Amino acid sequence: MTSILAGDTIAAIMRRAPVEQLEARMLIGHVTQLSRVQLITNAERVLNAAEAQQLATLFARRMAGEPIAYLLGEREFYGLSFQVSPAVLIPRPDTELLVELALQRLPPQGRVLDMGTGSGAIAIAIAHTRPDAILTALDVSEAALAVASANASRHNASVECLRSDWFTALGERQFDLIVSNPPYIVAGDRHLSEGDLRFEPIDALSDHADGLSALRIISAHAADHLSDDGWLLMEHGYDQAAAVRSLLEENGFGEVQSWRDLAQIERVSGGKKSRA
After folding, report:
1. Sign of CA pseudo-dihedral 160, 252, 214, 128
2. Exposure b/e, 73-89, CB count within 10 A at least 16 = b
3. How many CB atoms lie under 10 A from the CB of residue 14?
4. Using an 8 Å Cβ cutoff, are 221 and 166 in contact?
5. Which of 263, 258, 261 has its CA nearest to residue 247?
6. 1: pLDDT strictly greater than 70
C-alpha cells in the first residue's frame, strides 16, 4: 500500500497514487477542499498530518472496493449534486431516463409520487426542474428519508418525505404521476457480490426473490392512487421489460410501452391509467 505522509506534495501523491488518476484527484480535492484547477495550480502544496492520514484512509477504502461516491459523500445526478451514504443507493445516469419521461408527462401543478426514493434524486430532480409540481417521496427506511430530506433542503426543493411501506401510509391520496426505481435484482444474482453493489443497501437492490415482487405490488395498486390519464413509470432490470409490460397490462393500464437507456437497454416501462 502506498504511504501518504505529512509534507508530501500534491504532485508527488498524484504520481504514486494507488488508484486511477481521476479518482486520486477527486479524493485529494475532497481532503484539501481544492478544486480541480486549484489542484493543478497548487501542485507543490504539502499535506499536513491530518490531511495525509485522511487521504491514506480514503485510498485504502477505495482499494478495498468501496464506491467513490460513498468516500466523497456525494454523486451528481441530473446536473445536481446529491448527498449519499451507505443508507441509500448511488444515483446512476441510467435513472435520468425515468426523470425525463416523468417530466414529459407531468401536467401543470401536477402531483407526483416517487416510491422508494432513497437519496431523493428522482423526486428532487423533478421538483428542481418543475417548481410548480407537488412532490411526495416515500421510503420505508428512516435513514434513507433523512438523506432525502437533507438533499431536498440542499437544493431548496419542495418535496414531502413520507415513511411508508409502499402504499400503506398514503390513505386515499391521489397523484397525476407515479414513478419508482424499486429493488429489482433477483436474489443470488452475481452482480450483488461485484463492484459497488457489494457496499450498497441490499434491500434497495433486491427483493430477495425473483426481482419482480416490488414491481408487482406497485403495478397492482398504483391505479388506486392515480388520477384519470395519470402515468405509472417504473425502472427495472435489463431483462424484465416484457414481464413488467405484462404486469401493467394485467392491471388495466393503457399505452403500455418500454423505453431504452443510453446503452439501448429497455430500462423503464410504463402505462397510463384509463378513464373510469
Report:
1. negative
2. ebbebbebebbbbebbb
3. 15
4. yes
5. 258
6. no
